[in-house]
Design goal:
Elements: E1 2-11, E2 14-24, E3 29-33, H1 40-47, E4 55-60, H2 69-73, E5 76-79, H3 90-101, H4 107-114, H5 132-146, E6 150-154, H6 162-172, E7 180-184, H7 188-191, E8 197-202, E9 205-211
Parallel strand pairs: 3-7, 3-8, 5-6, 6-7
Antiparallel strand pairs: 1-2, 1-4, 8-9
């Protein structure tokens, strides 16, 4: 589903990524771990076509996200660690997500309800004025409503309380055998029951790649 071949990214004289080779497949639930500066964010940006590599390539379902970003990202649902500073109202954001990414507009409020958020009550509010937890739940709902082949979650539960985390993982379990799930997270104990593969990065390199199941 995602093939990463000899991927390197240089910033000046130092490497953000160095010779990364990974093949990530459907039905895998992968956690990517590492300290700050390990290369996790740079790797995600390269997968999303936001970071042009110095050498090597990424392919999502055979499509290079640098050469054809729109076609590649049709396969991907992404939830960032930091919500984007958009100035849309909640209703406008949902509509924009539906038009731009193909997310099912009707499903988004329903998924929010499963996360115990009645988003319809907040339709007229500006997205950036929502609480951190509400923003995170809405972005998760938008990603899920897109029904992509690949989900990338960057610290998806950072702004959620214990109940919110439980509801999030409950939504993830039915997707395990149908999708590729990638979690960038420090919460290894919390997420371990979902994970089938553990990847650890340090100084831009993969230092551990272990299949757990």
């Amino acid at each position: 589903m995602i093939d990463i071949v000899n991927l390197s990214k240089k910033f000046g004289s130092s490497f953000g990524l160095k010779d990364i080779n990974l093949s990530l497949k459907k039905d895998e639930s992968v956690i990517i771990m590492g300290q700050n500066g390990a290369g996790k964010t740079t790797l995600v940006r390269a997968i999303l076509g936001e970071q042009i590599p110095t050498c090597g390539a990424v392919h999502i379902a055979g499509v290079n996200p640098i050469k054809n970003r729109v076609a590649a990202l049709k396969h991907v649902g992404f939830v960032p660690q930091l919500p984007p500073p958009v100035k849309f109202s909640v209703k406008e954001l949902i509509r924009y997500a539906a038009v731009s990414s193909g997310a099912d507009e009707k499903k988004i409020p329903l998924i929010c309800e499963e996360l115990e958020l009645d988003i319809k009550e907040h339709f007229k509010k500006l997205f950036f004025k929502l609480s951190g937890g509400m923003k995170q739940k809405l972005l998760i709902a938008i990603a899920l409503a897109k029904e992509p082949d690949v989900f990338i979650f960057d610290e998806p539960t950072a702004n959620l309380d214990i109940k919110g985390r439980e509801n999030f993982y409950k939504l993830m379990r039915p997707l395990q055998k149908e999708r590729l799930l990638i979690f960038i997270s420090h919460r290894i104990e919390e997420i371990k029951s979902l994970i089938t593969r553990e990847i650890e990065m340090d100084l831009g390199k993969v230092v551990k790649d272990e299949k757990l199941i």
